[in-house]
Write a structure and sequence with these properties.
Length: 297
């Protein structure tokens, strides 16, 4: 059994210095501006004439952004030198590392389309510096399971009404209800209530009961299901706010004295863990090992 070694003083000093740099307001502002500048460069490159005329300038600016992002990631990795696992526990660190490191992969650098998509992904890194945007992205991610259930129920309602519409209106209106596929497309477009008046007017010429069909569908699809989806998103938004508040209350925002105490406690725990005997070792074997270590010291 291998015991984790406590972080050395060199790594502790490196982590402390890098942490001071990464937590400085100016550092975040510089990286944020670099991300926006990189997005602006991508917009300029869409103008073929301007891109061809200033190709070297744009390429140099892109390389400068890449160097800045690389230095940023090195500082963030260095800030976790005393606790490397802490870096990989943060999903934003993993996302940033994947986006920046992909620019150095040979196959990716040769694929212009893939490289542009990865450069576009850098724009999403602004969420790290905008708390409200970060909350929205977390809320969207947490609402995906509920949204999948909503889509299943919505598709089921759409299919049932499409089959009823095909039975009732296929012969009179084959352009909209000639098949279940056309009926589903027609009803999907009616979900926004756009064109509902014309659909009801055409249905009344076929049967007066068509008003019940369209009214029930509009009530169920455009009001009930949409409100359910809004409820799912709002619930996920509340959960994302709670997660963000808990993260802001973490020890990372404590004062320097508390940080020093936490670092001291971590070192003491590492030393105690390293001195523990391996699993299955007998007491007399542990005593011999300790005596040997003291003799060697």
């Amino acid at each position: 059994m291998t015991h984790p070694k406590p972080a050395g003083r060199g790594r502790m000093k490196l982590a402390a210095r890098c942490r001071v740099a990464t937590e400085a307001p100016a550092f975040g502002m510089v990286v944020f501006c670099a991300i926006l500048f990189n997005a602006a460069l991508m917009g300029v490159e869409t103008y073929s004439g301007l891109a061809a005329e200033h190709r070297l300038v744009l390429q140099g600016a892109e390389n400068c952004c890449l160097v800045l992002f690389t230095v940023e990631m090195l500082l963030r990795v260095g800030a976790c030198a005393d606790r490397p696992k802490a870096f990989f526990r943060d999903p934003w660190n993993l996302f940033d590392l994947a986006v920046v490191a992909s620019a150095f992969v040979p196959l990716v650098r040769e694929n212009t389309t893939l490289l542009r998509l990865l450069r576009l992904a850098r724009v999403l890194r602004t969420a790290r510096f905008l708390p409200h945007l970060r909350i929205l992205l977390i809320a969207v991610g947490r609402s995906l399971p509920g949204t999948a259930s909503f889509l299943f129920v919505g598709a089921l309602v759409l299919y049932v009404y499409a089959m009823v519409g095909w039975v009732c209106f296929a012969q009179s209106d084959p352009g909209h209800y000639g098949s279940v596929g056309r009926a589903m497309l027609t009803l999907f477009l009616l979900t926004t209530l756009d064109g509902l008046t014309d659909a009801v007017r055409a249905g009344l010429q076929i049967s007066r009961l068509s008003i019940v069909y369209y009214a029930s569908y509009a009530l169920l699809a455009s009001f009930v299901l949409v409100n359910v989806l809004i409820g799912v998103v709002l619930n996920s938004l509340d959960e994302a706010r709670e997660m963000e508040d808990e993260a802001n209350r973490a020890p990372a925002d404590a004062d320097p004295d508390v940080r020093a105490r936490i670092a001291t406690a971590r070192r003491a725990l590492d030393e105690i863990e390293a001195s523990l005997p391996p699993a299955g070792e007998r007491p007399e074997q542990s005593e011999r090992r300790l005596e040997a270590s003291h003799t060697g010291a």
